[in-house]
Amino acid sequence: MAKRRRGARTARPALRRHRRFEDLVDVALAAIPPPFVDALDEVAIVIADEPTDDQRRENDVGPDETLYGLYEGVPRTEWGADWAPIPNRITLFRLPLEEDFADPGDLADEVWVTVVHELAHHLGIDDDRLHELGVD
Predict the structure, then answer these.
(1) How far apart are CA 34 and CA 29, in angstroms?
(2) What is the pTM of this model?
(3) Which residues, 6 or more positions from 101, have their beta carbon under 8 angstroms from its beta carbon?
(4) Better pLDDT: 99 or 81
(5) Which residues are bridge partners to 92 per DSSP?
(6) How many CA atoms lie within 13 A of 88 on its CB side?
(7) How many CB atoms lie within 10 A of CB 49?
(8) Cα–Cα distances in Å, from 37 out to 52, 70, 136?
(9) 3-class DSSP state for residue 46?
(10) Cβ proximity of 49 and 94 under 8 Å
(11) Judging by DSSP bridges, how do beta strands 43-48 and 69-72 pair with one another?
(12) Which residues contact 69 (CB under 8 A, 6 or more apart)?
């Protein structure tokens, strides 16, 4: 009897693509310098294929626009004595990133920029300041 690996053969390239994207995220996270890297302990990093309809609506993302990443939670600058911990999350949207950055080097750069951008939101830095710093 011939033994075969379980799973559809057509799924293998997709699994490899997902793994490569996860590797890019791991590299981006490893490149976050101290003391900012400590803030990653307070945030879950999630990879999703695309933003949900709710995420698009809540962030005023039009039909011809997309998100590469999204921070959801309470920024550190808004924590108070009565603060009750809620999950803070950075979601990276794989498909829009892969579609807009076909070159592997460009994709790696944009994953890093997206991680830094969303982590900055957790640290209380808004989009205007990020633009001033060149991280947008």
Answers:
(1) 11
(2) 0.79
(3) 107, 109, 110
(4) 99
(5) 47, 69
(6) 22
(7) 10
(8) 28, 18, 19
(9) strand
(10) yes
(11) unpaired
(12) 90, 91, 92, 93, 114, 115, 117, 118
DSSP letter string, 54-76: HHHHHTT--TT---SEEEES--G
Is 101 or 63 the better-scoring residue by pLDDT? 101
Structure token digits, residue 103: 């070159």
Confidence of residue 82 (pLDDT cuts 50, 70, 90): low
Neighbouring residues of 130: CB distance < 8 A, sequence distance ≥ 6: 117, 120, 136
Token pair in block for residue 8: 């559809």
**Phi/psi at 109 (5° precision):** -60, -45
Question: Which positions ≥6 away from 95 have C-beta within 8 Å?
Answer: 49, 50
Q: Which two tokens stand for residue 63?
A: 């039909």
Backbone CA torsion sign across 88, 35, 126, 62 = negative
Judged on CB neighbours under 10 Å (0-12, 13-18, 19+), 105 is: exposed
Identity at 46, one-letter amino acid code: V
